[in-house]
Design goal:
Layout (H helix, E strand, L loop, with lengths): L11 E4 L6 H17 L7 E5 L5 H14 L4 E4 L5 H11 L3 E5 L8 E8 L7 H16 L29 E4 L2 H11 L2 H7 L2 E5 L8 H8 L3 E4 L21 H10 L3 E5 L6 E5 L4 E2 L1 H14 L7 E4 L5 H8 L4 E4 L3 H10 L4 E4 L3 E4 L8 H15 L3 H12 L3 E8 L2 H12 L5 E2 L2 E7 L4 E5 L4 E6 L5 E8 L2 H15 L2
Parallel strand pairs: 2-3, 2-4, 3-6, 7-8, 7-9, 12-13, 12-14
Antiparallel strand pairs: 1-5, 4-5, 9-10, 10-11, 14-15, 16-21, 17-18, 18-19, 19-20, 20-21
Helix pairs in contact: 1-2, 1-4, 6-12, 9-13
Length: 486
């Protein structure tokens, strides 16, 4: 059976031994090689990294072998390497891009293939479209002479084994020191050192093991670490740092009297933060915290980029300081584009990704954790205390996402209904705007909003609500469920 290989919001992902096979990994690698050769960038080589998942080293070796067979040198990261570190290695090596094998926070049965272009951020749609077209040509057995590739034909459907071309090479490479130097220049480690913090770290068995503890430990922080060894099953759970998955971290923070708990997902591009009181700080809380810190403590001035599903508390801050807000579709690739092109000092998304001015346009959970420590150190307060200060100045917003399942038939009906959906009011408030950038978003007169986004693969709708009170949030959720019969 031939599986359709397509790139979603953050690369191609599949179930190991079902569609994420050695043949398919080689196929996608050859499609990437075709893109690199077509751009005339082959001699600069590609960085190749992987996380801690099952067969990671073996899949990575197949990628390196295929790239070499197409005359592309490889900088092969030694050991499990976080996605943001693999991305930054592009800058360290002046490579043409990177391939990162990771399924990020997905269940253990998954792995994934992410292509990161030379600008060291997620590939934009026009790039992944070219790669997908190359994949289709190879799967169809069509000539790919323009790319220097042979069709994907082989015995029993297997790709032919590559032969290394003369001059091609594969160099073992460690970006650890270069990344640490760079990130240490972005974060105020001197302030962290003066504060005498205590921090508990949970890398969730993932590729981020060793980074936060090294940097913070060298800054004099008292560090406690757990789940800091490789487990391809991630302790029987998902390597996703959410409020529900970080109960042990919450307990250790409170029991040890720590200032912070910091967690990373499977490839360390997403963050999870526990405050000193043991409470989970959501990304929709942390992003305004960080923007406030950059504006007030650091004195930075500049726009902020957020996805359509991310808190408008950022908008209130930007308005006070006379800065624009760039709203993007869901997917950090769009945030990264604004960081590169619009001079944004912060870009982030409600799912737990962020980056800042001076860093690469790739989400980085390590950076987020270090900036959390900087905030606590600089202000001499817990994150909750800083949040209360922000709420007093800008007002409080309550955010929640609901995942609502339907049947395929209902999904089609609701999608048709949403095209003309324009209620004059919701929850007693006038609807003042409709945004269809990614899904359907209605903005109310008092600043509350609701967003409905269909899943691209399941009979499922994601309903995001942000309101001025818990009561308004519940009322908006009820009315939308009733109106759309979700």
């Amino acid at each position: 059976m031939t599986h359709k290989i397509s790139f979603g919001t953050d690369g191609w992902r599949g179930i190991i031994a079902d569609d994420f096979t050695f043949d398919n990994v080689r196929l996608v690698t050859r499609a990437v090689a075709a893109y690199i050769n077509g751009q005339g960038l082959a001699e600069r080589g590609l960085v190749v990294g992987h996380d801690n998942r099952f067969l990671a080293e073996e899949f990575t070796a197949a990628v390196a072998e295929e790239l070499n067979s197409q005359g592309i040198p490889v900088f092969l990261c030694r050991g499990a390497t976080p996605t943001p570190v693999t991305a930054y290695a592009i800058k360290l090596t002046n490579a043409a891009g990177a391939v990162m094998l990771t399924a990020s926070h997905n269940p253990p049965v998954y792995n994934g293939f992410k292509f990161i272009p030379e600008y060291a951020g997620p590939a934009l749609p026009h790039i992944t479209k070219q790669i997908e077209e190359n994949i289709a040509r190879l799967q169809a057995g069509e000539p790919c002479d323009v790319y220097g590739l042979e069709p994907a034909q082989g015995r029993n459907g297997r790709l032919p084994q590559p032969e290394l071309k003369e001059g091609a090479r594969c160099t073992g490479y460690s970006p650890f020191d270069g990344y640490v130097r760079h990130i240490s220049g972005i974060v105020d480690l001197a302030a962290i050192k003066r504060a005498g913090l205590k921090v508990v770290i949970d890398p969730m068995y993932g590729a981020g093991i060793g980074y936060l503890e090294h940097i913070l430990g060298n800054a004099g922080v008292q560090v406690e670490v757990f789940h800091n060894y490789r487990d391809p099953f991630f302790g029987g759970s998902l390597p996703e740092p959410t409020g529900k998955s970080l109960e042990e971290l919450k307990g250790r923070v409170k029991a040890g009297g720590a200032n912070l708990g910091l967690a990373l997902d499977g490839d360390a591009d997403r963050f999870g933060i526990i405050d000193a009181n043991g409470e989970y700080i959501t990304p929709n809380q942390f992003l305004p915290l960080l923007y406030y810190h950059l504006l007030t403590a650091r004195g930075w001035r500049g726009p902020v980029a957020r996805t359509v599903a991310t808190t408008h508390l950022l908008d209130r801050m930007a308005a006070k300081y006379g800065q624009p807000v760039y709203e993007t579709p869901v997917g950090f690739k769009y945030i990264g584009q604004n960081l590169l092109e619009k001079g944004c000092i912060l870009g982030g998304e409600e799912s737990g990704g962020l980056s800042v001015k001076g860093h690469i346009p790739e989400k980085d959970g390590i950076l987020a954790g270090l900036l959390a420590a900087e905030m606590v150190a600089h202000h001499g307060k817990s994150l909750t205390e800083i949040l209360e200060q922000i709420y007093r100045e800008f007002g409080r917003l309550f955010s929640e996402r609901l995942d609502l399942h339907t049947t395929p038939e209902q999904k089609a009906q609701i999608l048709e209904q949403l095209k003309g959906w324009a209620p004059p009011e919701l929850a007693g408030q006038q609807v003042t705007g409709k945004i269809t950038l990614d899904g359907t978003k209605l903005v109310l007169a008092d600043g509350a909003w609701i967003l409905i986004r269909p899943s691209g693969t399941e009979p499922l709708f994601r309903v995001y609500v942000e309101a001025n009170s818990l009561e308004q949030k519940a009322q908006l959720q009820r009315e939308v469920k009733q109106m759309l019969q979700l």
